[in-house]
Design goal:
This protein has 9 helices and 11 strands. The strands form 4 sheets. The chain has a 5-stranded antiparallel beta sheet, with helices on both faces. Strands 1-2 form a two-stranded antiparallel ribbon. The chain has a two-stranded antiparallel sheet with strand order 3-4. α3 crosses α5 and α3 crosses α7. It is an alpha+beta fold. It is globular. This is HNH endonuclease 5 domain-containing protein. It comes from Telmatocola sphagniphila.
């Protein structure tokens, strides 16, 4: 009799614990309710060696299984492009990440990769690098998702559906829109970076009225992105770089 009661009590306890782990949440991306024990890690967890970073190093936001699955292809391209951008000596130390990236490179992408040596007038090799065409579509999709996740992490509410969210690689912004780049540069220079994952990822943020500004930086690749969340504008983000990004000011 006592044993039956203990078994019943244990079952009840386990059921309650499972209930806590599988509590219903709302996905911050599709904003549908779901039951899950995991969320979306920001930045994508695959960018970091597993033996150096555990789950506590990542910002985790509520995300349903369907959205998580749909991110996989863009995440792989994002990780590939940033990893190949890293300086050679550092990249070679990341055997685990390099191995994953190498296995994920398809033939079409591999054919476009070139190895270049930069030499001095005296024919001394200054440095070597790989050149390749990054997948801007994937870079923008992933960084827009990171911006949405950081917004949730900061304000504890998801970005409303169909709100205009846009990101742009700093390299493209600097080359194509130098005046806009300069305004962003001045705006973010006065803001303190928030560091994550031992400095491999850091971000800055600011707000002017209904527009939230973000600066994301990934190391050791040294790649930066500028992003905005415009709560007063209702349209989905696009992978085309938008020359009408709101002008920053120090107001």
């Amino acid at each position: 009799m006592l044993n039956d009661s203990l078994r019943s009590f244990t079952k009840s306890d386990r059921s309650q614990e499972r209930g806590k782990r599988w509590h219903r949440e709302k996905c911050i991306y599709c904003q549908e309710e779901y039951s899950s024990r995991i969320g979306d890690h920001l930045p994508p967890q695959g960018y970091f060696p597993k033996n150096r970073y555990d789950a506590t190093n990542f910002i985790t936001v509520p995300a349903c299984e369907g959205c998580n699955r749909s991110f996989s292809d863009d995440d792989n391209k994002f990780i590939r492009d940033l990893t190949l951008k890293e300086p050679g000596p550092i990249r070679l130390e990341n055997d685990e990440v390099i191995d994953r990236v190498g296995r994920g490179i398809d033939r079409k992408f591999a054919l476009g990769v070139r190895h270049e040596k930069h030499v001095s007038p005296g024919m001394i090799v200054l440095f070597e690098q790989m050149t390749y065409k990054p997948d801007v579509h994937a870079l923008v999709n992933v960084t827009c998702r990171i911006v949405k996740g950081l917004y949730y992490h900061r304000f504890k509410i998801p970005v409303p559906l169909n709100t205009y969210v846009q990101t742009c690689p700093v390299e493209i912004l600097c080359r194509s829109y130098p005046e806009l780049y300069e305004r962003f540069n001045i705006y973010f220079s006065e803001r303190k970076p928030i560091s994550n994952c031992d400095g491999r990822f850091q971000y800055k943020m600011g707000q002017i009225s209904d527009v939230h500004y973000w600066y994301l930086e990934f190391h050791p690749a040294g790649v930066g992105f500028v992003g905005i969340v415009n709560l007063s504008e209702k349209r989905s983000h696009t992978t085309e770089i938008d020359s009408t990004l709101p002008a920053c000011s120090n107001a």
